[in-house]
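1st attempt posting a full record on here, be nice pls
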Amino acid sequence: MRRQIENPHKINRLINAPVVRVVGDNVEQGIYNIKEAIEIAERQGLDLVEISPTASPPVCKVVDYKKFLYEIKKKQKEIKAKTAKVVVKEIRLGPNTDDHDFNFKLNHAKKFLQEGAKVKVDVFFKGRSIIYKDQGEIILLKFAQDLEDFGKVEKMPLLEGKRMIMIITPKK
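the predicted structure (as tokens):
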């Protein structure tokens, strides 16, 4: 059994409105009954495509249907390409991270922010180290302060279970 792909638009004889508004290139725009509209399209060797079925009367365009679908796909591709893809890089610290490790991870965060990625910094508390919550918050705030030339804090440090999370976004 072959599956038939359903068209997103009604074309030619599939349009069931008795009267339509016709638009398109080389066409006298106006309101026609459906038979006249189809004849206008056939005389030009094109299709009558219903582009706005909810309008009163429905709007139909005289156009080559394959070319019409191609243009729609092309526009959707352009829109998709223009949308920014947000990348989130994660950096994990401990509540007792020493200066060398801190600076090493700070340099990575700077690089990520310069590339345009968001940075999610978290302090992970293992076992009983949860008693150092304030120390973890101090480390995150110092991290944010050292990165203020490259990014700004989107989400302040927040304790979620055994980790304290902060998100930094790049400056444009």
